[in-house]
Amino acid sequence: MENGMREIGPEEVPKLRGCLEELARHHNSVSINFKGCYPKQPFGETLARFSSDVDAGRSSIAVIETEDRVIGFCKINYGNAVGDLEYLIVSEDHRGKGYGAQLMEWALNRFEGLGIRDIDVKVADGNNALTLYERYGFKMNAHLLRLSR
Questions:
Q1: ∠52-58-59 over CA atoms, to 5°?
Q2: For a Cys staple, 54 with which of 10, 38, 78, 93, CB 3.0–4.6 Å?
Q3: CA 65 to CA 141: how far, in whole Å?
Q4: What is the reported pTM?
Q5: Which of 93, 80, 35, 87 is nearest to 63 (CA)?
Q6: Are 43 and 21 in contact (CB under 8 A)?
Q7: DSSP secondary structure string for all residues of 83-94
Q8: How far apart are CA 123 and CA 133, in angstroms?
Q9: Residues of the chain with pLDDT > 90: what percent?
Q10: What backbone torsions phi and psi does residue 119 show, to the nearest 5 degrees?
Q11: Is residue 53 within 8 Å of residue 77, measured between CB atoms?
Q12: Which residues lie closer than 8 Å to 80 by C-beta, 6 or more apart?
């Protein structure tokens, strides 16, 4: 397999750790408000939640992988009237090759198949992925302000 996209089950969720670690490094270097403090939750807890969400039918995860590793993934959540595009990550050394678009198309098609017309995505300040979401028609809906003590 060169580079393939497929959905994964809960037992394969641990394969996503490398992408989450890369996302943490990215946010800690470029994010306006997350520098040095991302993630708030340990990777193991996040992966356990992902696995539980998929197992319970609340989420789906698609991966793009090479023969030796996952180079990108997308996690969507559903079960409410509004869908949640929770994660869309492509490893930095594989960006610009259309993988983000592939994952976005998968997510939008899954939501459409579920009858979900409204989709939310949260983007951290400073994350350049905002342009990808805007290309697909996502528009600013609100500013989320948080006080952390």
A1: 80
A2: 10
A3: 33
A4: 0.89
A5: 87
A6: yes
A7: EEEEEEEE-GGG
A8: 9
A9: 66
A10: -130, 130
A11: yes
A12: none
